[in-house]
Amino acid sequence: MILAALSGFLLFLSFPKFNWGTLSWVAFVPLFWALKQASSFLQAFLLGLVAGVVCYIGTIYWIAYVIINYGYLPLYVGIILMLLLACYLSLYLALFSAFVFYFRNRISLYVTAPVLWICFEYLKSVVLTGFPWENLGYAQYRNVYFIQFADVFGVFGLSFLLIWANVAVFRLLTERTKKEWVAAAMVLAAIAGVHLYGVYRLGQVEKAVRVAETMEVSLVQGNIDQSVKWNPQFQRETLHRYERLSLLNAPGKGSLVVWPETAVPFKFQEQGDLHRQIINLVHQANIWLLFGSVSYIGSQSHGAYYNSAYLLSPEGEIKGKYDKVHLVPYGEYVPLRKIVPFVEGFTKEIGDFAEGAGFFPLDMHRKKIGVLICYEAILAEAAREYKRKGADLLVTISNDAWFGKTSAPFQHFSMMILRAVETRLYLIRAANTGISGIVDPAGRVLKMTEIFKEEALKGEIRFVRMATFYSQHGDVLVLACFLMFLAFFIISLKRGINHVDR
User: Which residues participate in catalysis according to the annotation?
Assistant: First the structure.
């Protein structure tokens, strides 16, 4: 159990705030060692569960913070609910461990471990609406050469290689035969090849960036306290803050200013004084403005509400509106309301949201903008869909004030960096409170803000056009891994179950 817990601890340290991503190359070695000594499927399952619980408590502890501060629940309830989520997420690592044990005597760990990991990591990302938070490959978000490979197989491709490397280290430590040295050398050569691909691809990106059309942008981080955000008495003060920051840091005429998710503390579609104030702003500054606002159809009491993003032209016309598609359970809608009524505290200001129609880019003159609202920035399929529909720029708007000064804002920002690499598009992010920033198509952070700081970030983006295998073909690696998983079962049935180690 100690070895399994050590693996979970090393995994936790691989992600923000610690950012010791190098540990992810060896984090599974203690777990593999423990599984080598396991005597049953159930014991292997429990070892994986222990590793997962340790990892996820360290990674998503901030869930308790959100529940306590915005669900208005006692400390012990927040901790219990966080632990329940950590245990659920740990089931996938537990199943991975159990099946590593199941196949260990018939199929090489070099083959089974990365395949099994991708299968269960994908399931974690899609089952029950999915929770792809800090999938393994994200631990390498600062390894600029390695992450270039994400434009081929996405973040799952990075996870595959990390597990492969862990297997190589483990086998060398436990076997040290000529055969194992050869196998490890092959893995090392493959990983070196991926880094060389990164060097080559980085050069291509830089060349494309140099010749691409440019545009100035300003990202406004209002840093509005969550406790007063929806208070009617602070509406005008909030809007004045965004207006002041936008005018002081306005980009060139006809350029883009971005405000965060639900930056407008009223319903923009209702044409009152505050609505006209925003229209006057874009006229005065001669800018395009993209901002978040709650919208609805039907009546306010019985209609459907949406978490929306509006795009205004310099003439003050609404050129497009995007309604958030992937909603967060218990954050933006309340399933099982009668069973767990306390969660209504999260959405009591605006009610439940309805899902948007789909990921459709907004037209900004001759350019197309793909908008990702908050959690959607960690969904590779959303950015990929925008790329397929001709998006020239990815914009994510968020409100990370919910998380306080925990590791969550840093984790959130780190994951969205991979969307730029997968699509080879510039990505800009405006958050109510950090981290706002500009990321180039190679996943390099060009500019970023601090959290809980009122600021406007002014910079330059380019409209790069580069095709990627991943945006065109999606998660073919995942499909291949599930087919191989099925093949493993067929092989094991033919050979029989043998619990004697090779």
Answer: 261, 324, 374
